[in-house]
Amino acid sequence: MSEPPVTVMVVDDHPMWRDGVARDLGERGFEVRATAGDAASALRIAQAVTPDVVLMDLNLGDTSGVQATLQITQEIPGTRVLVLSASGEHADVLEAVKAGASGYLVKSASAEELVDAVRRTAAGDAVFTAGLAGLVLGEYRRMAITPDSEHQAPQLTERETEVLRLVAKGMTARQIATKLVISHRTVENHVQSTLRKLQLHNRVELARYAIEHGLDQDGDPDPEDS
């Protein structure tokens, strides 16, 4: 039995661009549940159709897509936002990510890059146009350098650290389960435990934490269950 299609909503204030993206995604197997041209209707419609992914433009006339992103990610937990914007400015990228966006793609991306980004976003990955990931991660590393004597780093088990390292490498839960020779459920349990300990909310934030602490550059862990 085939998996259900990824459901998508497209938010952009340019009707021709909005309809074109919606049409392209529909032709490539996605279920486009709705489109919207402004921030207010974006939130209202997203609440009604609850798509897996909202493709969000940042320039929505009087209201920024950043605000719409914040509202959608806060009020619709099962929906992820992938920004699709003409701007590649550092400040715009950081604002969107801090508002809860799972990724950021510039409009010059190819159709294949867009399709891949939407699928990966739906799967829980953090997706960025080449070059922008470095900007975001550099900012989070810079923030992580500032010492905080009042808060000691939480203690993770060896297995939690192994799973965290593989999350930072961009692996899915099923890929991690295969690599570590443990069940998919066990991986998810470790992820949830780590999220609680680090006071994070999702795998995107978990990946940021791991990269900030250099875990994405460590050697591969030994696949030995604990």
Automatic annotation (TrEMBL):
The HTH luxR-type domain, residue ranges: 149-214
InterPro entries hit by this protein: CheY-like_superfamily, NreC/VraR/RcsB-like_REC, Sig_transdc_resp-reg_receiver, Tscrpt_reg_LuxR_C, WalR-like
Cell inner membrane recorded as keyword: no
SMART domains: HTH_LUXR, REC
Annotated Response regulatory domain residues: 7-122
Keywords: DNA-binding, Phosphoprotein
Metal-binding is among the record's keywords: no
Cross-referenced Pfam families: GerE, Response_reg
4-aspartylphosphate modifications at: D57
Protein name, as recorded: Response regulator transcription factor
